[in-house]
Amino acid sequence: MAVINVALAGRSYEVRVGGGLLANLAAECGPLLRKRRVPIVTDANVHRLWSAPVEAALREAGHEPRWLVHAPGEQAKSWQELARTVDWLLAEEVERGDHILALGGGVVGDLTGFAAAVLKRGCGFVQLPTTLLAQVDSSVGGKTAINCASGKNLVGAFHQPALVLADLDALGTLPPRQLRAGYAEVLKYGVLGDASFFAWCEENARGLLAGDRGSREYAVRVSVSEKARIVAEDERETTGARALLNLGHTFGHALEAESGFSDRLLHGEAVALGMVLAARFSARVGLMGEADAGRIARAIDAAGLPSELAALGLQAGGKRLASHMLYDKKMDAGTLPFVLLRGIGEAFLDRKVALDEVAAFLDEELQAH
Ligand code: GLY
User: Which domains does the chain have, with CATH numbers?
Assistant: First the structure.
């Protein structure tokens, strides 16, 4: 097992990466579970696959698991489901010093973390991420949120978990499409700041996606270490360091919005294509060579992720796609910071990108074959 520390002074915590963590849940959580009753928030898919070992691990240690099971999917990140979660936690008599377990992917983690942030002005929670995307990104760093009528993740809080247990066994029950989508966030760490990890991904993506345990362990460990380093440097995304984690997300967000945030395009798929677009845009404005942009697109295509905007079959033109970016929560006094590239492993934040130029670029990409 690897243990990575997220160093945040009084709010520091461990991310443990390895096998058998859920099967050994009570021992892994130790004194964080201080009462007999343990509240667990999850979704119906994860409940079906993982409730039995989690129940057994907790009951063996004398605990009584209490479950709140949401319907799977993004719709759980709503005001309504937040209210349901908070009311349920209150009915379960959860106190500030207790820890709520969030068992699932990014949706469950974001919703439960936000409920924990507002319940009694903040109580503890533990992230038990079961998807690759949640293990390498959303469970680490304390971003919690729900969606509202104006857009995704627009209501939320920074609220750090007390512990993250990234159990590699959970990746074994993940649908292949979800695994590939999560892999986009793994590759992102290479593209944004680590050219040698990018090269490792080029070599090992196939094995990782096919189930190679060593590759999965290494990829999650490197990704979490990089995320922990960035979060420790810029917890609240104020200096620009954490903003680099949004590589591919601004283009990707526009594609997700145009697809109605549906299963047509998963978040990780949008980020994958968004990274290709950020790379090609960077090449177009002369920041990096076409060869590097091509290498990024090939790595994404080789993982079975979308790498061509024209192939998505969207009806929108560049102007409409760019207009979705105006609702991005990173808009600041009329400008939208973009993460661009000077090369593989050399991302930076550009605050002066003109949306007209982005729209013209997207028009070209929509025509390309
Ligand atoms: N997913 C981006 C971040 O945590 O900052």
Answer: 2-173 (3.40.50.1970), 176-367 (1.20.1090.10)
